[in-house]
What we know:
The structure holds three protein chains of three kinds. By secondary structure, chain A is α/β, with parallel strands linked by helices. Chain A has helices at residues 8-16, 22-40, 48-63, 106-113, 156-164, 180-185, 220-230, 274-289, 302-320, 338-349, 352-365, 371-394, 417-421, 428-433, 462-476; strands at 43-46, 75-79, 117-122, 169-174, 189-192, 212-217, 260-264, 293-297, 397-401, 437-444, 450-456.
Amino acid sequence: MSLADLTITEAARGLRERRFSSRELVDAVLERAAQTEAELHAYLTLDHEGARRAADQADEELASGTDRGPLHGIPIALKDNLCTSGVETTCASQILAGYHPPYDATAVRRLREAGAVPVGKTNLDEFAMGSSTENSAYGPTRNPWDPDRVPGGSSGGSAAAVAAGSALGALGSDTGGSIRQPASLCGLVGVKPTYGLVSRYGLVAFASSLDQIGPLARTVEDAIAILEAIAGHDPADATSWAGEVPDFRAELGRGVEGLRIGTVTELSGDGYEPAVSEAVASMVAELEARGARVEEVSLPTFDVALSAYYLIAPAEASANLARFDGVRYGLRVPGATTEEMMARTRAEGFGPEVIRRILLGTYALSAGYYDAFYGQAHRVRTLIARDFARAYERVDVLVSPTSPTVAFPIGERTEDPLAMYLSDICTIPSNLAGHPAISIPIGLDDAGLPIGFQVMAPALAEPLLFRVAAEVERIAGFDARPTGVAP
Amino acid sequence: MPIDIDISHVARLARLALDDDQLELYRRQLGVILEHAARVQALDTEGVEPTGHPLGFTNAFRDDEVRPSLDREVVLAEAPEERDGYFVVPPALEGP
Amino acid sequence: MSWEPVIGIEVHVELRTDSKMFCGCAVSFGEEPNVNICPVCLGLPGSLPVPNRRAIEWITEIGLALNCRISPVSVFHRKNYFYADLPKNYQISQYDVPVAHDGWLEITVDGATRRIGIERAHMEEDTGKSIHLGGGGRIHSAEATLLDFNRAGVPLVEVVSRPDLRSAAEARAYAQELRAIVAELGVSDARLEEGSIRFDANVSVRRSGSEDFGTKVEIKNMNSFRSLERAIDFEIARQVDVLEAGGVLVQETRHWDEEAGVTRGMRTKEGSSDYRYFTEPDLVPMVIDERWQDEIRARMPELPAARRARYRGLGVDPQTAGALVGAPEAFRRLFDEAVEAGADARAVANWITGELVAWARREAVDPSTVAVTGAGLAELVAMVAAGELSASAAKDVLDGMARGEGSARQVAESRDLLQITDRGAIESAVDEVLAEQVEAVQRYRSGETKVVGFLVGQVMRATGGKADPRAVNELIRAKLDEA
Ligand SMILES: [Mg+2]
Ligand SMILES: [Zn+2]
């Protein structure tokens, strides 16, 4: 077994026992990338030099007695919508080709301070808009479990990298499911933290009121280690939570005895693959067998959550992406006037999905339509939060499939935006409410493709979320590794 | 109910130079998506306030303290066109 | 039938905080281009704004000074429009819940005082600066545009009046009063030449007696109070001309051309002003509660209107009170100290707004460095009242005091300017002159009374100009009449 296949927790132990160095760990990961990248295309940029330098430094520190904690010396991948000082950051868009930010995102800086070794920037749907990582200006990422299928998205590059072993863990961003859905499709753990728990400073914004940075990893324990490094108040992000960060490990190991678990009526039925529904149902039965009290809960507003999301997210995106105009950085397509230069730059620099969402958001905000679309969507968001609050009076956590389907074939949904949007039906409500949610792999379907199980909890209830997730992980005993790409 | 969209107006607002074929394609796609999105209109939201920050906190400020700015050369190195310390763009057609 | 102008003014005030509205870049002027820039104010991908607490306190001061109500909860919005000097292509501004709203401001024009409604005062960020090259700087004939983002993100307060102004003179008075208030609060440099305070006017006309509003035209680019007044006067006349000729006005933005003295329409694309406002998701609501408001209020200085009322209460006439309100702060403090020292308020106010202001301007001296004290000024006024100094001698004394030559009496003595107030000394001088000027005395007695002036002059000459001419005059008449 290659060092690249270790979990973060295992690797951390090995480093401290001097069984291998961070440099060896990073070299193993880079070697894995060399074997798999031609097929997978998980990375947009691999920073060999920077990674080796950081690994050497991590080794020196450990040798001299400086221990920065569980991530010290661990190779981590970063989604390419996180700004990295001096390292190209493109958001998988032509409009940012060759762009080198002058600063690190707060989450990236904190990872570095925790001793982690960033190995490269991973592919994504352009500006995180998509659910398959096919909307990348630099070509799609493929699923390590089956290269003819998508890895999910938009953090598909991060998911594929961790699944394939070209990183031990990764950061992604989740606006409507962009961490959890690819985690589900790639057999990984993916966490969307409570909105405000992780600073968004340096995350290139898609939809500011929904975006959260979070970890993708092989185990719940690994995900916690990453989240511990990046969570916490940041004075540079006015929306970041200034209160205390909960102790994510506080409830680990307590099992589910006595917990009330709700299944969601609206997140089942037609459109859910039988293998997915069955795996989820049997996991629920296992939890019940271990003492959880399970009941079905109806959250009627979930039926319009997707609609609300596809008004709110594009509206915010239309403003967030207005800054890409060819004036100060990135692509410029010449024009006779400022207006013409800007309009050409944007039309040529953005891909079709981004343009579609900018148009959608611009329309939803424009005079005469604001109240019917954007304004109404925001009021509906309040109703969704109320539905959640009512549900949490009866249950402690909610569970559902993470994605209605397993990984789907490349190209299957590219011509039908609406079908693609439906991939996020289970994950979107948590973003709208600002609540934490996690996806845990619970098994494979007949074709050997991973199935993910979602747990949702109230705001700042991450300790409870991880408690349930750890139990789900223990029950599932999922230790399969992708077979689609030979290491 | 099909939704009628003045797509060239929207494209102009969004500063996107799209040709007629593109405009037509997006007009149709937006129509489909908006028909689905219009389902939000079915809910009764009378008296419902729009959502603010999910954690409901207020007053996040910074003190009035000067912090170092960026090195101009670093910033201008990313600029498509620069001259004498300025960013340069083609002439403006209209006022703000 | 006559026309009535309807005018509203929008004022943009740049706050002089140390750092910008949403980032730590310095607020400073006249620097090299693009030196005060960072990821936030340059709109780099991934950057986020964090509001400057002091700017929020200062707009609250402005709101309170304008008798506004302060919104207990207020939010920022994004105002979306593309322009090269707007880094994010949206401006963080406020929309339906500004920090302050529904206030008023009093102005006095030709002796009449009117209350002008303030609709709102909201917080926003400034844009960068565009320099249009070629074609003489005219926007649409420029060959290229240079962009400097030093000003981008400087805190800006926009104050919007109600359309309550009825003449260009009123508009000017309103603008001046508002400028005086923000200058007094010390929250802005409030310099028109440097653009730290900028005025736009919305002008329409309607038939006198009508309650409806005519077509509104926005005028921009006035950089002095005078040009504000001229531009509005021009625009009123232009609109009346168009309407009387049976024409139709279009709602538009017009530029004031200072040299030509005309307003000109700007070239704009139709329908481009759909700003698509929505709540700024990068910021949380601001709660300015009663307690915070009280803290802010306690720090505020006395404002022009209150000060004017106080001066009037001390017996200062309206015009002098107005001039004193507009006088430099050091001189206003001098007034307070002199009154405190027991001086007659009216006289002190006259000396300060007349002679002292003129002296400082003539000598190009910073008012705060003028050596006059309140007690000194009180002494000077008392000496004049007692006849110890003539009006012209007192001006000399003030000059000496201002140059630091000592107290009023010390200067009067060292410059030998004291009047002779000893009645006996004056009387003997008069007696001598009357004895010498036999012919003049004869002429007086024969009815030619205006010869007294000549005799007074002779006495003044004999006393080296230090006798009180009024006393001399009285004495001569008394002596001639009694004899
Ligand atoms: Mg404004
Ligand atoms: Zn800045």
